[in-house]
Amino acid sequence: MPDLNLLITLNVLLEEGSVARAAQRLRLSPSAMSRALARLRETTGDPLLVRAGRGLVPTPRALELRERVGMLVQDAEAVLRPAEALDLNQLVRAFTLRTSDGFVENFGAPLIARINQEAPGVRLSFVQKLNKDSTLLREGSVDLETGVIGETTSPEVRTRMLFRDRFIGVVREGHPLTQGEMTAVRYAGARHILVSRRGHEKGVMDDALSELGLKRDIITIVAGFSSAIALARASDLVASVPERHVGNLCQGMHCFALPFPTPPITVSMLWHPRMDADPAHRWLRSCVWEVCSQ
Fold it and tell me: Is residue 252 in a domain?
């Protein structure tokens, strides 16, 4: 049976990159640390740290193990740490949320107000979500994400649905589409804004129209829904946007249900399993869920 204490030793060695510093941190003698490194080399079948000039450098195998070992040690420490009652008034912490601009514009203000009311020592930072890669959650540089779960979302990530959404059309007040019955033919006959972060030339609306033998005229492509709404507000172009996700941005504009079915949108929050039992993170998730579910 493997000696799990070696995980802690390996983690410190890989973090320090020095037998002497690792020994000092673990309060071991240099000779005891050297013996532990020898056991790790025997167990893993890899030298792990090799001499380069006056120092040691990690092997490719050590670099591969560093992240996994660090997470294993963190998880073990969390399991063995006694649970502490969360005092929100005394909580001082910074959380980073990776979201779209639309999420911040629509839910950011009530979420910040809720956080400040319950835990004034907590600060939220929002960073833009440009893809669905879960690496930042795994590395710990992002605490929580929101968005649509996709094929590139890591299967290890925990998720909880926040809300369901649907696409609607948005035009300026006085636009010709504000008068009369909305039909698929009238919608397709207008001039449109396509929202695509990756510069694609069609979206779900185009797929739905194609099923009806129709095609819309896309005049311009933008990277975000807020940009599409701003353009529609100042022109005769039509923006097709998720209703709940951008609700606050459409004030003073005419919104209409699309006259054909499109796939529903499920917006979720995502986090790494190592944060699952953290009381402060659990509280943050409850705040996000409650703000979004109202």
Answer: yes
